[in-house]
Every structure is written in structure tokens, then in C-alpha cells.
């Protein structure tokens, strides 16, 4: 059967002497694995379509299992994301997280658009850590673990201060914080931004400026949520942690 889909390359690996197998995220067919013959050859018509982060149109043939590319066109190469170590690291984390948390052939037009907006924001030079934290929130939502920040998950109180209880799926007020001794205290600014992140659509993202101390707390909060509900070891995240430890 022939398929024509819009897709973003979220994984690319060598296959044999001259080919590559790519995994693309599509809005209509979820993840699709496609063999691209001759992609590593210097004169390949399709080599650029196999580059990580590429947004393109892919025409492929598949009966079952692996598809075979017959034609394709690049919509956005996102080449800037492959030219600098820091940008590459953030974009690689976004696509690896997507790959590891989505199922084959599970359509998700929303997540496709969120990933595309994430890559575009990184390419446009917007703040990498903030973009990644926003995208992590979208991954939690898509995975069914959307946290509650508007009120205490235990009693419904909306008066702060609040603490993040990842295992409870949201925030606890001072009266209920005893229910989770591992709950993470949140500053007022961090709590406000988490509520904003929960509601925000990445496709409508403007410029966001976050103070360094708030950014550090947001990273800790999102790490807690991701580790509690997703808990998948990622090579790209380990690399980001190394970059934080030894800044460029």
C-alpha cells in the first residue's frame, strides 16, 4: 500500500552499506519506520530527507512492517539544529523523548504540531531550557499524565504557597503537604509558570524570559514529573546534564 505523509525525522540509523532506516512522526499515522535505499551515497536524491529533525513529505510503500521510500520533498530542513552542539543537544532530546513515549501507528496531530513548534522555536533562537520544559509538559499531556497546578489535588484549595507532588499528579497546599514528604516546594513565580506551561500551546509561543533561579526550579519540577511518570533513560538527557555540568 502506498502512503503519502507529512513527517518529522525523530530517529535515523544506518542500514547496510548505503541505506538508512528512519523513523518519522506523522500527524495521521503516528510513527512510521521507512527504509531509504542509497541514502548514504554522495549523489543520493533522498539523503537529505533522512537527516534528524527534517520536516518533509514522504511517499513510501508498505505492506506490513518496514516501509520503503519512493519519493520525498523537504518542507523544512532545520539544518541550524545540526550545526551547533547546544541546539543539537536540545533538539535531540526532544525527538528522542518523542520516540520513546509514542506508539507506532497511533495518530497524534496535536503532538506532531507541538514537536514541530518546539524545533522551530529552538531554530529561532528562543531559550532552549524553557522550550524543552514546555515540550516536556506536552509529552506528559500526550502520555496521560497531565499534572494539576490550578488547585491542591487533595482539597481543592487555591491559596498558596504550593508544593509539587509528582506522585499525586499536581500541587499540594500547606495543609495537605504532609501527605507527601517528598513534595517539592514551589516559589510563586515557578508555580505561575507551571500553570502557564500547562495551558500554553507551543504553536502560539511568543518570547518568554525566565529568571535563572526560576528556570532552575522549573527544570527540577519537570525532571521530577518526567522521572515519576515516564521514567525512561535517555542518552540525549544524559548529554544535556553533562553540558550543564561543564558549560560550553
Automatic annotation (TrEMBL):
Gene3D superfamilies attached to this UniProt entry: Nucleic acid-binding proteins (2.40.50.140), Recombination protein O, C-terminal domain (1.20.1440.120)
Keywords: DNA damage, DNA recombination, DNA repair
UniProt-listed InterPro entries: ARFGAP/RecO (IPR037278), DNA_rep/recomb_RecO_N (IPR022572), NA-bd_OB-fold (IPR012340), RecO (IPR003717), RecO_C (IPR042242)
Coiled coil, from the record: none
Pfam families: RecO_C, RecO_N
Keyword DNA damage: yes
Domain DNA replication/recombination mediator RecO N-terminal span(s) in chain numbering: 1-77
Keyword DNA repair: yes
Source domain of life: Bacteria
Cited function: Involved in DNA repair and RecF pathway recombination.
Family: Belongs to the RecO family.
Matches recorded under PANTHER family: DNA REPAIR PROTEIN RECO
Protein name (record): DNA repair protein RecO
Organism: Paenibacillus sepulcri
Protein's gene: recO
